[in-house]
Design brief:
The structure is a homotetramer. Helices cover about 70% and strands about 0% of the residues of chain A. By secondary structure, chain A is mainly α. The structure holds a DNA duplex.
Chain lengths: ~210, ~210, ~210, ~210
Amino acid sequence: MAPRHKESERDAVMKETRELLLGAAAEEFAREGYRGANINRISRAAGFAKGTIYNYFPSKRAVMLALIEETAKAHADYIVEQVMEEEEPIGRLERFFQAGFAFVPSHLPQSLVMVNNIYGPDVEFKEHMYQAYQPLFQLVGQEIVAHGIARGAFRPADPVATAALLMTIYLGTGSTVDDKGRPWLDPRQVATFALDGLRGGEPEVGEGGTS
Amino acid sequence: MAPRHKESERDAVMKETRELLLGAAAEEFAREGYRGANINRISRAAGFAKGTIYNYFPSKRAVMLALIEETAKAHADYIVEQVMEEEEPIGRLERFFQAGFAFVPSHLPQSLVMVNNIYGPDVEFKEHMYQAYQPLFQLVGQEIVAHGIARGAFRPADPVATAALLMTIYLGTGSTVDDKGRPWLDPRQVATFALDGLRGGEPEVGEGGTS
Amino acid sequence: MAPRHKESERDAVMKETRELLLGAAAEEFAREGYRGANINRISRAAGFAKGTIYNYFPSKRAVMLALIEETAKAHADYIVEQVMEEEEPIGRLERFFQAGFAFVPSHLPQSLVMVNNIYGPDVEFKEHMYQAYQPLFQLVGQEIVAHGIARGAFRPADPVATAALLMTIYLGTGSTVDDKGRPWLDPRQVATFALDGLRGGEPEVGEGGTS
Amino acid sequence: MAPRHKESERDAVMKETRELLLGAAAEEFAREGYRGANINRISRAAGFAKGTIYNYFPSKRAVMLALIEETAKAHADYIVEQVMEEEEPIGRLERFFQAGFAFVPSHLPQSLVMVNNIYGPDVEFKEHMYQAYQPLFQLVGQEIVAHGIARGAFRPADPVATAALLMTIYLGTGSTVDDKGRPWLDPRQVATFALDGLRGGEPEVGEGGTS
DNA sequence: TATGAATGAGAGTTCATTCAT
DNA sequence: AATGAATGAACTCTCATTCAT
């Protein structure tokens, strides 16, 4: 009944509203944590009345879950674009870290929220994170780790688990940039660690014993 | 007025009550996060009425701050005892990781809380963590990193920052042992990374370029 | 966006809700005192859920402060209307006392709260009372006291301070009408005192003496 | 069994402890009001542990009731001593006011508490005040008011009610000395009012009207 | 008699969510 | 689709009172 472009116009408006809400949510969640976040404040910060957010998400939890998904997608797009321009394993790994360290400040609230969820107490969010990042884990596992192992550049290891490790490292590293800029962790050094780790020296440290 | 034994007996009881409360707090904070934690539940879980915890700590925040301090102390004692039995740098580093990986499961709730604070949104807690861990950072920085650098076992790096990095690595690694034991991160591999990283291959990855 | 009537209709409803809440607050404060008053009970007594009052006032203190202001305004309107119909100083003073003694029973809870604040321990409330009553003090000071002094009907005295005294007298007098109607103080006699006091006989009682 | 003076010594100590507690209670009640007062703080301020006050008074209410009684007694003693030195009605009235205005600052916390109770919401305290002050009301009523009326110095009035009025006036006046010394009410002027009021000019103001 | 740890009812306040407009 | 008043569960913190020592 209504003209078709009206429909799609409304769709566009709704999509934009949704993005505004998720952006405001990222900032609120980053600043206050999930429990401390105020959903009314999110809706207001996005420029809407407090009830509006409930037209887009059924609950506060659903906002976080949606934010996790969106961020994982954006993250994956960003990483893939950068990594696939390179062919060599070492080069891909370097690209991966460059892209990773660039992603964090350019999506700071989102990154903080992700890290918060990784190490936070909420099991459902952790699980959702894990699911949402599967595609990226797979891709990094295949196109960087397995690729490098196959070419003999890296020592053998589980590709997906290693991908998770790599991402966790730079996400965590990037997130320790606190207000006062106190450098608990040094990104450069972290990257070096990771590269050395993948290339491998002798294996075996840990419970295994020294003998 | 009262005999001295009575006084010290009371002190002992109060000290134990305090420990019970902090133990219950660690579990609650680990399970629910700071914001989600219920201070009445903590007091009940420790075996007391809900008001009792306020005879020991003036506020919920104060409970967390005290827990951070206690844990940092226990952590430092634990690490130092293990590490100092060894003389060789590589041996010390291995001991450090063994002790670290052992500390986490033996103080799981406390460790989860620490990690949660490191990556959580509360700036006061972060700051307090940093302060409380200074002694351990110093010690690890001196007795492992600087010690190893001096003996040529490790490549040069800032000792204290490196100490923070090492601890963050195993704390974070140990804390991803979620309910289902899903191994996002593999401790052994992490330790290998770290050891390789300290021993060094070529430096330079990250923004710095290859030059 | 919404039609204008809707807006003003909502405004009217909110205003009425506010008045209901302040009315209930006056009764609760009068019966229990500020500290003893239960803000949930206020909201319930006004016909709302306990949280509703927080949509109108940010705190319990704010409710009291608003009540002080509203009452001072109502009080001033009431007094002014009565007093200004008369021209002669003595007549105005009589009108003032008539209006005052009539105001108290017709706004009994509010009056009790005011007196309670005047003689109560809360300095912020006292200060707020003083500020809120300034307009009435000024008016009574000018239109009754100074007016009467200028015409030679009253002896010279500071108009504003005298206004405060007069009001305090009838507020206090009216407020001793306790549940059992026990007449500690007799309004008629009080008014006589005040009139005689203003008209003056010999001055001087008390420590000083003008000689 | 125990020697007799030990007994009376203990009585003396207990009496002093009681006085210390009531003194601290007066200050706490004056500063915080009854509901806001903290009974533990009272016991501490008196130099004892928080439980000690319960060895002397069965409850917080009982502390206030005892304080009312003690203060009324002290007040009566003070007034009677001053007033009875004079024979003439006017002289007695002047003495009464002098003594009254002197009593308030020399027993400021107690006076503030009394006034607070007179105008406060607690009916039991009001009642207790009224009972405790009966002896003083009777005395002032007889020895000043009735005495003066009998000698033709004052106009006829109910002696006891007038006594209550006079006391209320100077208690209230003295109690408006707030922190900043803001003079809502001027003691001198108040005394003049009262004297004139007793001596009488024309009667009739108030609801009766003159017409 | 004095002590102070323990208790638990109760209060102020927050905020996710609902729903009539 | 957007609004915001209303709701009430839930939470932190206070403190009068008890009682074993």
